[in-house]
Design brief:
149 residues, Alpha-D-Glucose-1,6-Bisphosphate, Chain A, domain 4, 7 strands
Length: 149
């Protein structure tokens, strides 16, 4: 049930990190969302943007588990309240690691520790490749992919 994606990106870990954590990068690659966080381990974080509950829809939220700039970003993840009434009971863990490989960066994303029968598993398995492809394009070219929505 774990999800794992490996992407090789023709950019430095710093450029990929920028796409993952800066307001500009996140808004460009995470369907118009911003990430609200202090990026301190133990603090809360949320991806917020246009959606079911208006412009400030909380799409996912959780707590920062690890945050080492240009290397690892890990957090617990709950679907936002607009998606499921029992959102607080539904949880998984997302871990993104970056490592230099030659002149590029290997991005590995693992989403694991899913609550049993988590209803977001299917959408996550579809959405992560789109978002990671957009992160790759953004880090390499400064442009984003147009998915038509």
């Amino acid at each position: 049930m774990d999800l794992r994606f490996d992407f090789y990106i023709g950019a430095t870990p710093e450029q990929v990190w920028h796409a993952l954590t800066s307001d500009e990068g996140v808004k460009s690659t995470f369907f118009g969302c911003t990430i609200r966080s202090t990026f301190q381990v133990g603090d809360e974080m949320a991806y917020v943007g246009p959606g079911k509950a208006g412009d400030d829809t909380v799409h996912v939220y959780g707590k920062i588990l690890q945050f080492e700039p240009h290397h690892i970003f890990s957090f617990t993840e709950h679907p936002g309240p607009a998606y499921y009434e029992n959102h607080a009971e539904l949880q998984s863990r997302v871990t993104i690691t970056l490592e230099p490989v030659g002149g590029c960066t290997k991005l590995t994303l693992i989403q694991d520790q899913w609550t049993e029968n988590h209803p977001s598993h299917a959408s996550a398995s579809n959405n992560w490749p789109m978002m990671l492809s957009s992160i790759k394009t953004y880090a390499e070219t400064g442009k984003t992919l147009d998915f038509g929505f």
